[in-house]
Amino acid sequence: MTSTPVDTPVAPPSLAVVAARVEARLEPFLADEVARWSAFDGALADPLQALSDLTLAPAKRIRPTFCHWGNIAAGGDPDDTGVVDAGAAIELLQAFALIHDDVMDGSSVRRGRRTAHLTFADAHQEGTWRGEPRRYGEGVAILIGDLALVYADQFMVDANRDARRVWDTLRVELNAGQYLDLHGTACGEEDPRRTRRIARYKSGKYTVERPLHLGAALAGGLDGFAETLSGYGEPLGEAFQLRDDLLGAFGETAHTGKPVGDDLREGKPTTLLAEGLARAGDADRRIIESAGHAGLDDEGVARIQDVLVSVGAKAAIETRVDHLAAEAIGALDPALVDPEVIDALAGLAWYVAHRVA
After folding, report:
1. Which of 61, 136, 67 is CA-nearest to residue 92?
2. What is 13-354's CATH number?
3. Rounded to an integer, what is the distance from CA 256 to the centroid of its chain?
4. What residue segments make up the domains of the chain, in order of their start?
5. Distance between CA atoms of 20 and 292, rounded to whole angstroms?
6. Burial of 130 (0-12, 13-18, 19+ CB in 10 A)
7. Alpha helical stretches, state H, the chain
8. What percentage of the chain exceeds 90 in pLDDT?
9. What residues pair up with 109 in beta bridges, in sequence order?
10. How far apart (Å, rounded) are the C-alpha atoms in residues 307 and 168?
11. Pick from 136-140, 149-153, 171-175, 189-193: least confident
């Protein structure tokens, strides 16, 4: 079973503008790094190219766009190259998180491509090298992710002190959220309060609130706008992750670039599953609890999807997403925020909350 919002939102124009600027900054940088280290030792070409391919693969660049509008909200210059550098840093941090996340989850596809740890495990096996292909592939992927984190920091080296503080907080929160997600998956977390906390720290704050704060800090205006930006960013960040939960359970591979029901196969501790468990009777509960079990096949995924729909969990999360997006937009104070920024952030809120990928 799959689902698509009735009114599929059109991407706001600023997404394409910011994406083009960030990609134009990243492309030559990564090409230079591939060339530099390949010349040093040819064996380094493959991991560097893998990082470049993932980072520059078609993507929405939502986080740099929020950084851009946080900067404009605080009176920043729309042509400030420092904000473009921050956007590049955020995209490299995203690459770091995705590569490590794929290792932790054992994922096979990312952005429509075979994941890094499996690509390098394949190379090990095809080369009949010594040792275990899986350990080699995972080891290389971890190093590629680490390299992405180092490069991300390089793009923030000239940022002011307030921006560096936001950047440091963002990175710590991301890793804390990743641990809570990993732990929640392992222990079968069902508490809705904890699943919301995982969603908030693994993705929500990192995707919306902190990029907004980072942009405002780069403009030297964080103190005056932090509360307003958080009033918008916190609920929208949660809406973003709840939409992610829905896509992870019901999204179509053609849109998400991942197998249908991937989160159900992994047993991710999502608010969607917690909502389903809270609503389910004994028989339906057993079906939902099969999420994450070894050998869960397509039929098993479809059964879980059907139960999440029949008990009303999916509809409840959809309603929650709508309320959170409305709350975010309502937090934008016209007395503090320019109408152009309000219009842009309102459009982004609708897009983020109702996207199909």
Report:
1. 61
2. 1.10.600.10
3. 12
4. 13-354
5. 38
6. exposed
7. 13-40, 45-56, 62-73, 81-105, 116-126, 133-155, 161-187, 192-199, 210-218, 222-250, 253-256, 262-266, 271-279, 282-288, 298-310, 313-330, 339-354
8. 76
9. 114
10. 41
11. 189-193
**What's the chain's length in residues?**
357
* Digit-coded pLDDT (tens) for 27-82: 999 999 999 999 999 999 999 999 999 999 999 999 999 999 999 999 999 889 99
User: 3-state secondary structure string, 147-199?
Assistant: HHHHHHHHHCCCCCHHHHHHHHHHHHHHHHHHHHHHHHHHHCCCCHHHHHHHH
Q: pLDDT band for 269, please (50, 70, 90 cuts).
A: confident
Scanning the structure block, which residue is given the tokens 């909502």?
A: 275
Using a 10 angstrom Cβ sphere, with 0-12 exposed, 13-18 middle and 19 or more buried, the burial of residue 143 is middle
- Residues near 161 by beta carbon (within 8 Å), at least 6 away in sequence: none
What's the burial of 164, exposed, middle or buried (CB within 10 Å: 0-12/13-18/19+)? middle
The residue type of 4 is: T
